[in-house]
Design a protein that fits this description.
Layout lengths: L10 E6 L8 E6 L4 E3 L4 E3 L4 H5 L15 H10 L9
Antiparallel strand pairs: 1-2, 3-4
């Protein structure tokens, strides 16, 4: 997900669980929690399974109020990630 004003990447939306795309949970992961690993050819994170299970919910089927900075703070605080908007 791209932050509209700065054009910077703010979140990766990732799905976990399910089978063939059905029954999976979607989570917004703060971009700062991902580190690209060239030897892996993918991203690594220090997010635990427990953190993921307790993370604030996100669904593409529901409207997300992007003007609600408190909701974004909740997400960043949960994952112990710095705010991308620079408080």
């Amino acid at each position: 997900m791209i932050e509209k004003i700065s054009g910077r990447v703010a979140y990766a939306v990732m799905s976990f669980g399910g089978f063939l795309g059905m029954g999976s949970d979607e989570h917004m992961i703060p971009w700062s929690k991902l580190t690209y690993d060239t030897s892996l050819g993918g991203y690594r994170t220090d997010i635990t399974e427990s953190q993921l299970r307790g993370a604030p919910a996100f669904s593409r089927d529901q409207n997300w109020d992007w003007s609600d900075r408190n909701r974004e703070q909740e997400l960043h605080d949960h994952f112990r990630a710095p705010y991308y908007w620079g408080i």
